[in-house]
Amino acid sequence: MPTTSLAVRGSQCLIVCAALVAALFLSTGPAQARATVDTFSFTETDTYTAPLEGCLPQDLVGTVTLTVTVTGQEVDRAQGGGAVHGVNTYDYRLDLPGGMYVQSGLSQEHFTFDVNPPLTVFNGVTQDIRTIYAADGTPVGSLSIHEVAHITWADRNGNSTPDPGEISVTFDHFRLRCG
Predict the structure, then answer these.
(1) What secondary structure letter does DSSP report for 26?
(2) What is the distance between the alpha carbons of residues 64 and 46, in angstroms, rounded to a whole number?
(3) Per DSSP, what are the bridge partners of residue 174?
(4) How far is CA 66 from CA 31, 47, 53, 170, in A?
(5) What's the whole-number mean pLDDT along residues 145-159?
(6) Complete DSSP assignment for 31-95
(7) How far, in whole angstroms, is CA 161 from its chain's centroid?
(8) Could you read off the pLDDT of 75-110 as tens digits, one per residue?
(9) Of 110, 118, 109, whose CA–CA distance to 152 is shortest?
(10) Which phi and psi (to 5°) does residue 19 adopt?
(11) Residue 1 — very low, low, confident or very high, per pLDDT cuts 50/70/90?
């Protein structure tokens, strides 16, 4: 999922995870006598151009290589609905002109979905720590991102996406620090 801003990452996860939840729950058919539990894991790598959010001049654009590994567990409840929880692990590298580069260290997003139709609740917590390096490999700065996102909605039209008028609670606390 290419993006030039990590502030968008949480909403992208929400959309992707909502589609995953819909696909998992809709594919199970009628309610079963017992809950079923499945695990999932996949990795995707994208390359795109972008600046480093907030810490370097925005006109300093480089090539980002972002690998996202998603692992988690999905539970289908016998009475309907279910839950998904997991972790998105990000390996981020930004190569800038002149040899400077930025490399992620700890970079994870923990997420949960709980679907009890028509009510859906999503929570996501992200911590992203990066180091900025000079061309010779010497650390010259850092970037840290912390985000907590939540949304509760009643999916009245059954499309597994929070639409206007369906959302009852939402917040996104995003903090970026440069050092």
Answers:
(1) H
(2) 8
(3) 147
(4) 38, 6, 14, 28
(5) 92
(6) PPSS-EEEEEEEEEEEEEEEEPTTTS-TT-EEEEEEEEEEEEEEEE-TTS-EEEEEEEEEEEEEE
(7) 16
(8) 999 888 899 999 999 999 999 999 999 999 889 999
(9) 118
(10) -65, -40
(11) very low
pLDDT at 124: 96
Neighbours of 4 (CB within 10 A): 15
C-beta of residue 126 within 8 angstroms of C-beta of residue 150: no
Q: Report the candidate in 46, 53, 47 with the shortest Cα–Cα distance to residue 7.
A: 53
Q: pLDDT for 36-66, tens place per residue?
A: 999 999 999 999 999 887 887 878 899 999 9
| Tokens of residue 76, six digits | 């289908």
Owner of token pair 């996949």 = 42
Residue 2 clears pLDDT 60, i.e. is over it? no
**Residue 26 reports pLDDT greater than 50:** no
CA separation for the pair 168, 88 (Å, rounded)? 26
Q: CA-to-CA distance for 64 and 38, rounded, in angstroms?
A: 33
